[in-house]
């Protein structure tokens, strides 16, 4: 599949591996380490099996633990999945906030988009589970909606900062944020979750994908194209003092 | 709800009403008229009840017909729904093709967008059912995917016609078509299907919605904004010889 590629955004992550690494943190009890092992197994199982079809045996097989141990930590697959998804979303938001903000307005879109697309690629099962579980579990839906709202509000702030305020026919910044956010999420759904073969064929790799999304986003928000130099500076083969 | 408004695009339609009107066509047999009555009832029932929860009694109540008559035409709710959805998509595509192509490049986006948003608003249940049924019924999914592919191909052609071919860093027209298509579909899903209250509050009416979508679309595709006069010319309060 051409969408996969190796070196992508340095902050991109695979949530199962994050749970693996957390087990090595100093000072954990054996119980805390086992819980992280169960969480890693849930995350891996959800990459292979949609939430609706997930069975505890899939998780137990992954973690090489007994059913009994799973039920020691979680009442059912819903509780386990909700907790793993909330950990994932928290990690996503925290990591997103660490992305270096560039002085260049195109790079300021490109770098977060590259990160976001790559996280979607590597955690497609968790992203899909977010949608399914948010339809079924109200407490999760509320937290998920709050996160999306925060994301749109930050986007809208950055759009407002960069809009020319003299233009009285400018579309509302909040609405624009929903538009570009919807665009990137719908791209991800079609490429990574539904694996639309026609669309996937158009995408060379995640860098190329991020470039297309970022150029459209830049144009939609600023009403002009980034310069050729801005685009080239963000390409992975670009060598310079950065 | 502010999103509703009266006079919208002249070609916009409510599919249940289309089935009602088709019953008046000359030369129909009684059986053909009753079938259209059943189809209208299925369309109305799907506006009130999601497909998963739809029962034949909902349809029978709507059409004021007996269970027996429903089963005279359809084996089950799946067959009935698939046929109604295919009729809807065919009518949508045929009507879309009748939209007058304007000489103005902004109006050429605005008019189809206004039509498409209003059809989404008035047939939100059918649109939602398209997604659900395409996940469950392979034969429907194939036809639905073909339709979406045709739509993207037409969009890409029009994007290619209007791109400046001198620009070597231009994103691929097919990918751009998926981007703007994803944007409008995701807007519709959030406003009409999920009825996101925050987003709905930002939208004054369908004309305002179409204007925002069209400005973003125009910018994303052409890399510049439409002129103030182009935007004003498309507003419903604009009076001139058109």
From TrEMBL, chains A, B:
A molecular-function term among this protein's GO annotations: DNA binding
Keyword Ligase annotated: no
One Pfam family of this chain: TetR_N
Classification via PROSITE patterns: HTH_TETR_2 (PS50977)
Residue ranges of every copy of the HTH tetR-type domain listed in the record: 32-92
Residues within the DNA-binding region(s): 55-74
Entry keyword Iron-sulfur: no
Signal peptide extent: none
Listed InterPro entries: Homeodomain-like_sf (IPR009057), HTH_TetR (IPR001647), Tet_transcr_reg_TetR-rel_C_sf (IPR036271)
Entry keyword set: DNA-binding
Record protein name field: HTH tetR-type domain-containing protein
């Amino acid at each position: 599949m051409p969408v996969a590629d190796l070196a992508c955004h340095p902050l991109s992550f695979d949530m199962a591996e994050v749970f693996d690494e957390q087990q090595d943190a100093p000072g954990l009890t054996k119980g805390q380490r086992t819980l992280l092992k169960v969480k890693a197994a849930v995350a891996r199982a959800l990459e292979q099996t949609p939430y609706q079809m997930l069975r505890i045996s899939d998780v137990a097989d992954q973690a090489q633990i007994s059913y009994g141990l799973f039920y020691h930590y979680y009442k059912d697959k819903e509780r386990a999945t909700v907790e793993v998804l909330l950990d994932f979303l928290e990690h996503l938001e925290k990591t997103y906030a660490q992305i270096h903000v560039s002085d260049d307005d195109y790079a300021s879109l490109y770098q977060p988009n590259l990160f976001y697309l790559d996280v979607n690629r590597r955690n497609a099962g968790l992203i899909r589970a977010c949608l399914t579980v948010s339809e079924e579990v109200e407490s999760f839906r509320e937290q998920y909606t709050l996160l999306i709202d925060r994301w749109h509000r930050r986007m809208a702030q950055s759009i407002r900062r960069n809009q020319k305020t003299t233009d009285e026919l400018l579309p509302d910044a909040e609405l624009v944020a929903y538009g570009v956010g919807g665009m990137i999420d719908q791209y991800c759904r079609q490429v990574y979750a539904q694996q639309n073969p026609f669309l996937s064929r158009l995408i060379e790799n995640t860098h190329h994908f991020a470039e297309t999304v970022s150029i459209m986003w830049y144009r939609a928000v600023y009403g002009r194209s980034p310069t050729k130099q801005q685009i080239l500076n963000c390409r992975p083969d670009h060598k310079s003092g950065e």
